[in-house]
Design a protein that fits this description.
This protein is α/β, with parallel strands linked by helices. It is built from twelve helices and 19 strands. Helices cover 35% and strands 30% of the residues.
Amino acid sequence: MLHAMRERRLFFTVLFAFLILTAAPCVHAQSGKITALHVTGSKHFASEQIAAMSGLKPGDTVTKDDIQAGADRLAALGPFLNVTYRFRPQGNDGVEIEFQLQDAPLVPVAYDNFPWFTDKELNDALRNVVPFFDGTAPEQGAILDLMNEALEKLLGTRNVKGTIERTLLGRPDSGGMMVQFKVAGASLRVNGLQFGHPLAGEDRRVRERLDDIVGKAYSRFAIEVFLREQVRPVYLERGHLNVKFGTPEPRFTGNPNRPLEDNVLVVVPVETGPAYKWGGAEWTGDLAFGPAALNTFLGMMPGEVVNGMKLEAGFDRVRNEYARTGYLDCVINSEAAFDNTGGKVTYRVGVIEGAQYRMGEMVITGLSLAAEKQLLAAWRIAKGQVFDKMYFEDFVEKGVKLLFADTPVHYDELGRWLRTNPETKTVDVLLDFK
């Protein structure tokens, strides 16, 4: 009995000592002085920049809540998708912190209607509040609110009345996105559009579309879309494949004594580059058609001035011909090689055909049995036959409407999908009538 009591006393003595020892680091971890602050995982920002964003710095006395608050500040800003941290006690009252980050996608920043300022002045205003600003921004986050405030403050330096709006939208020159800042409430109008090369101003089609811009509210974005969709084709058709349009330059017109004029003449710099002649195409890949047929699809003749719009249509035809013969996954990669001395352009074209698909099942929903039977009878690709995507698209766009034009079959929407099976090299057609 006495032996058992001694063992119990020894057990509680050891347990008490263990609790004291293990509790000590927890007490120290409640507050400590930052001895080192590390940042890992970000490829876009320097460690010093991120540390400054956190609001923490070596020498600060912090608690775990302070560290969490620093991580929360980083997460709320927007440039980071994921923010975690860990800390290690150092000595009696020190703590070493590491923030582990994952960068969020960044997109270019665009200014839509700020003719009172140069882009440099606008960029400098943003750097005053976001020192690491490099012309890009996250798609969301508190950092965008700081940018809004900086630009509104800048408007006040020129007595411009208006508020700043921002929008995430597609770029006119690519498939990417951008954050656009715009002055809401500005009353600027475009009273003229002047090009740095005569061809654009002389083209009848361009002149007929000038009303899209002239007389409307000034918008750099609208002008850039106009240049890409209306003006660029004029130069491409004449072989100027490398034509470049500079940043539209708004110039105030009217009474210079007025504090703020409300009309601008927009001048567009144009660099045409040479007018190239066709030097041919070099095809690589496992070619189902062969170079001669592919060149025929392109429709370009040796030595002719390259009509860029015709060439784009030719590459579309190549893709369509592959789709017509079941190559639904075909990828066409083209790279232009410009000979500025000889004034010729050749194209290196790589073709990745992928599998050739054959017709699988036809799945129809939303029709009566009689209407479904009628549709299946009209469909011309038999099961197991090479699939023709161009026929499919024509069938769903035109054929179905004609088929049911004089029948009681009515529908508001027609959903259509192609479900490919690479293992069997078959494709199922799914049609949903609503």
